[in-house]
């Protein structure tokens, strides 16, 4: 018999002030640019200052978000740690290579090299809490977080673990931004938060963030939602997307009428947002629609912000005006569908139910 999978706690550091979990997008951070940095919490409250100085940005963000998730779940340890990341601590690799060149390959400290691997975040969290269980990092482009989520889901459903810390983290890296701007994956001209999703131009606004969740097969007082179903599809033609979503819902015993809202991954890239627009004007036209990447920026694990947002909607029963994409109102939503894709590939579907 399969066990249920619950999201028992959340923690987030992002472009918005999400590290303070008491609120829910009451004070929205505005920006104007082609890339936007996360709002830094006071890292001294979470990490010894001497250690923080040597830590990559992704490591520091993850230390805060994971500690907040663990504290809310009232846990000191977990059975497994699973992290999804597209770039890992690529910034440390960049700094190490720069030091290599600037110092003529001499007098190099190993810290940046050690911290530059993709699994640095998962390993560091495990060392801090003394977790000797399953420790895995998925580097699957923009479905890195969903891959981690699916791994945890399978383990919990089969009762192979009771509590799993699942994370999504990516940091802003200067060279990566410059390279992707050169190939038109990032916008050429600065754009504001209010205009990004309707900019009508190529490319995205690049962001960063870290989002951690404690998943369990045991419900508790802090539980936000239940992970009802999920699906990942690597390659779909544009005309196949609607049918695939309908098929996914049918396979899981759902119809469009069973959804109280859909969270879409629009990012403002005129070449690929048409997929979302077709859905918004097609099969989702009678369903409340919400968006989030104008708040978080786009990055490989930005869907972690969408996942955080869905759980906050369930907990608070509120839908902030800043995330509404159409005029259909909903209060106290009970079931939400999250749909994301990047540049027409790696389509992910996640259904969450309020507990």
TrEMBL record:
A GO CC term attached to the entry: cytosol
Biological processes, Gene Ontology terms: fatty acid biosynthetic process
Highest taxon of the lineage: Bacteria
Stored InterPro entries: Beta-ketoacyl_synthase, Ketoacyl_synth_N, Thiolase-like
This protein's UniProt keywords: Transferase
Gene3D superfamilies, alphabetized: 3.40.47.10
Keyword Chaperone in record: no
Protein name per its UniProtKB record: 3-oxoacyl-ACP synthase
